[in-house]
Amino acid sequence: DRPKGRRVTKNRWVFDVKTDGRKKARLVAKGYSQIEGLDYDQVFSPVVRFETVRLILALAALEGMHISGLDVRNAYLYGKLDEEIYMEQPEGFKVKGQEHRVLRLLRALYGLKQAGLAWWRTLNESLKELGFTRLVSDAGIFIYKTKDGRFVLVIVYVDDALFCGKDKALVAKLKNRFMKKWECRDLGDVKEFLRMRITRKGDEIHLDQTAYLETVLQRCGMQNAKSVPTPLPAGYKPEPHTGPVDPALRSRYQTVIGSLLYIMLGTRPDICFAVTKLAQQAANPSQDHLDKALYICRYLVGTKFYALVYSGKSGQGVSACTDSDWANDPEIRRSQSGYFMKLANGVFSWLSRRQKTVALSSTEAEYMSLSDCSRQVVWVKMLLKEIDYLLGALPICSDNQGAIFIGSNPVTERRSKHIDIRYHYIRELIEEKQVELFYISTDENPADLFTKNLGRVKFLKFRGMLGLRFYESS
């Protein structure tokens, strides 16, 4: 019977059609009615980072790793609940004559605030029992090591998992042991992960989101739009809208920008600057901002069959490029930082963002960008070290000699003595030989793509240096 003084959680059915055509029905709890401290306490559960997935895929292309995938069926239902939670009987399954009675949940259900954490704890213990160790650098990666130096990596994102390793037999063995513990759907050689299509052609791995991109274009009504060569018109700078907020316009704008953000974060670094700049206007967009967001869609119409390509035969190791655009923001005069990292001749990590403080010179802006990039480089080194790849000093390229000089020498000059101490972190990395700075001319620096709105010629030149290539699978 319904307990007195206890909140009863409602539920609903959610229906979906998967990318492979399967139809799915799922009972979801309405977790928004839960009360913190009574129905749940902690809710955070880690997931693997996008850039980590791309890094492992690039490494797999270089090392010739075998990659196999699986999907845990109804994963959240395995998570055990510590709290006392009651739920109404689901629609279509109510017991006749006992509709007033409720269900006591012993296991997590999709929609509950703590469901993700409950499943994560269960999964973590399960993998530990199988001999896997969770990486410190990314809690979504687990590694199994043998005494003779072989290893298998498991990439986990909620209920999706990839098993990667050079030894195909060992990968299959560990995967089968995992599948005996949980009810899983064996996906075989990986074809898709996080809505990213993964295609292997010889020693190359192609990564694209063509199917999701077509869905976004249809949602925005842009599938038949005329294509354009660049994400934004040359020289365009968005200006803040000071008029009253239009709720309908804002809702549509945020829908478009949110969809573009997912594409950008997944496989399309070429739209990173454009999407980042327009996302800053999401609180109060104007019609002009919406038109420019749809302009990005027009660019994607003509490039929807582009993929990130990681080439094993390239033999290219980890490298980074960084750049900044001084006083890029016309309102608050802050600069724009941008950098990317490459492995196997394809980018796996990129960033474009407004700097947190005002830089008083272009050299200072470049120095701040160098320092931001160096922190990412150190994280990549730590992650690779955990899977037994020991690297020397990683190269970072910059197009500003002054910034390289300040980073390489402990100088305190009149024009640089005020720089925040946090940005001098790069000096320590150089002394410890974790990174090494190199000069690259502005005309040859692809990181320029992440800091400003380039014209067609430069944009197309730098886009080709990122590892993006036209590709349409059969």
Written account of the structure:
- This protein has 474 residues and is an alpha+beta fold.
- Among the domains are: 8-194, no CATH class; 207-303, no CATH class.
- Helix content is 31%, strand content 25%.
- It is built from eleven helices and 21 strands.
- Strands 7-8-9-10-4-11 form a six-stranded antiparallel beta sheet, sandwiched between helices. A five-stranded antiparallel beta sheet has the order 12-13-14-15-21.
- Strand 13 (196-201) and strand 14 form a beta hairpin.
- Helix 5 (247-266) runs antiparallel to helix 6 (272-279), helix 5 (247-266) runs parallel beside helix 7 (287-303) and helix 8 (362-386) crosses helix 9 (401-408).
- This is Reverse transcriptase Ty1/copia-type domain-containing protein.
- It comes from Rhodofomes roseus.
- Residues 2-232 form the Reverse transcriptase Ty1/copia-type domain.
- Pfam families: RVT_2 (PF07727).
